[in-house]
Amino acid sequence: MQKTDSQGVPVGGRFYALDALRGLAILAMLLxxxxxxxxxxxxxxxxxxxxPPPAHQWIGTLPGITWVDxxxxxxxxxxxxxxxxxxxxxMAAGAPLWHAAAFILERGILLTFFALFVQAIRPSTLSGxxxxxxxxxxxxxxxxxxxxxxxxxxxxxxxxxxxxRVSGWIGVALFFLLARYPDGSGFELxxxxxxxVVLANMAVFGSLVWMLTRDQLLPRLGVLxxxxxxxxxxxxxxxxxxxxxxxxxxxxxxxxxxxxxxxxCIVIPGTIAGDLxxxxxxxxxxxxxxxxxxxxxxxxxxxxxxxxxxFAPVLLxxxxxxxxxxxxxxxxxxxxxxxxxxxxxxxEIEQLYRKLFCWAIYWLALGLFFEPYEGGIKKxxxxxxxxxVTSGLAxxxxxxxxxIIDVFKRRRRLQLLIDNGQNPMIAYAGINNFITPVLALTxxxxxxxxxxxxxWLGFCKGLIITLLMAITVSFLTRAKIFWRT
Length: 485
Hints:
The protein is mainly alpha-helical. 66% of the residues lie in helices and 0% in strands.
């Protein structure tokens, strides 16, 4: 019987660079939520490009993206890339398709619940001015999630596992029933975390797209083409007709809108990269890594790694400053240089990098040619250029992380990212419902606030809070405590 790790992935067949990418995305997402606002504003490139300081009000005509605008697409991309790892073993086991479909539906339901509950227990939702009681209630809500979502060892007796689950769901029901919010209302379906709602839609529809096209790339790209047509028919200016009608229709607006499915334009490129990585991981697990034949020298791999990391600052700076011609020319020059450096791959992992980078070139080029459309690249509301530029950048960062982990064998240096990438939902809920309440109850937040007297010291405060959450998640991951979402 093939040995697997705590998440069901074959040992030796895990692509840790993907975990690191997901960890980088979730920790950057948490950090972006801790940045100072108001009189201690940082430079505009430290915030969402369409919500610049000092007002931080949405300006829909303002083009450009910043590092903050990369975190969500990077997470979506890594979600799509994980589908082959999560679903292939189920498909290969010979189980009927409905088993895999049931797993996908279960995951979607759990993420939907998470979207509702994590918003309901958030301190800022419970009160505009949290008191000690609110902080304690937020902590209780966070703890309730553990019996509901933690993966329980299959070796435990069924009765114990069921007892733990039931106790958790009873706690959830009581919280929903008894909690009251500043407007006097209780539980409402419309009170949910929009980021997790989008992830729930992507988990269901993205998984189904991958499952139905897992051995056929052209139909998967065909789905992307249909998404193009629907998206272009409705934005930026909708045209009346049946396409617009299905765009607007939703049987349950609190959880599903066809609008959310446009993010498949990031998830589907992720699945393509995931297929390539999964095939490499399978061969690696089978002992056919083929790394005894070295095609690229160490310095060459180092230069490739540096170039992969250089794409993001070049594109972020160039697109935000609107240096469009120079930015595009530099990007294509970087693509040509890196493509040349990746010539003549001699082993499995070098071939993987070259294939991945070919897709990165395609998505970057597609995104840059779409850049003028919709008034320039934007995260909010997301433009076609945004989907594909960020997909290409995600691949570049993934390659760089893999070189560090799989070639240079420096996995321990990225272990904090990997641990958080394997447990992202604990990090997402814990920043507001564990770290912040604990700091508030112990006086730590008062000390950090006294310390953060300048904008960049305010950034350091956010960095400390994020690091505390990252260390907490790393401890839980190493203790084999994972949430099922």
